[in-house]
Amino acid sequence: MTSANTDKTQDDKVLDAMKSFAETYAKRTDTYFCSEPSVTAVVIEGLAKHKQELGAPLCPCRHYEDKEAEVKAAYWNCPCVPMRERKECHCMLFITPDNEFAGDKQDIAMEEIIKVRESLAS
Amino acid sequence: MADSVTDSTFKEVVLDSEIPVLVDFWAPWCGPCRMVAPVVDEIADQYEGQVKVVKLNTDENPNVASQYGIRSIPTLMIFKGGQRVDMVVGAVPKTTLSNTLEKHL
Q1: Tell me, what's the ipTM?
Q2: Which EC numbers characterise this protein's activity in its record (chain A) (predicted)?
Q3: Which CA distances in Å does A11 have to A14, A47, A119?
């Protein structure tokens, strides 16, 4: 029981860190979260999951032959090279204001992320 | 609604299908996959009997995903007579998907 509780705390810490990163990075790059908040929530959760499992927030919107090798290559570690160079996030986490899917927020409530996490935990 | 397909059922359900098949390659933590899923379901209803529509979870079925060189998710692939004939990458509007599909009916 103790170890399960510790894991949970660690999970929450990583999730919190990913949420803060996403909010800060959106503001810094003048990009916005998706108008549909569950999209943002699921991507932040996916990044946190990769950070926890692999040590780096590998993009959750790609299929990899070898995740460990990709983490080392770093190209798809968030923020990925296309995002840093051209503000291209095909995961729809950071959306430029001219995109029809862009919302008007650069913050997301933790409740929103928890809600999605619970809907996926089955 | 689109049915699920796996590494083990892919040949039977997709490659051996008598009619064209649309395969939605998705992953659980992929945001745009959530946007495209309802579009794929609508397509399944609209083309019922003409096109088979299925989805494949790339996390749980890495063999088929790797075999077809899936990189960006979501990827929507159209199969006809056991061959890949077209594909669309990303969360696309329904019109884009149906226009692509129409070419192969």
Answers
A1: 0.90
A2: 1.8.7.2
A3: 5, 12, 17
Tell me the average pLDDT across B71-93: 96
Residue B31 to residue A45, Cβ atoms within 8 A: no
Strands B75-80 and B52-57 come out as unpaired
- The mean pLDDT of B50-64, rounded to a whole number, is 97
Q: What is the pLDDT of residue A70?
A: 97
Q: pLDDT-based confidence at A11, cuts 50/70/90?
A: confident
CATH architecture of the domain with range B3-102: 3-Layer(aba) Sandwich (3.40)
A34 flagged as catalytic = no
The shortest C-alpha distance from B69 to chain A (Å) reads 9
H-helix or E-strand containing B3?
Answer: strand B3-4
Q: Closest CB to B73: pick one of A36, A63, A120.
A: A63
Among the options A59, A61, A78, A80, which is catalytic? Answer: A61
Token pair, residue A112, equals: 């929103």
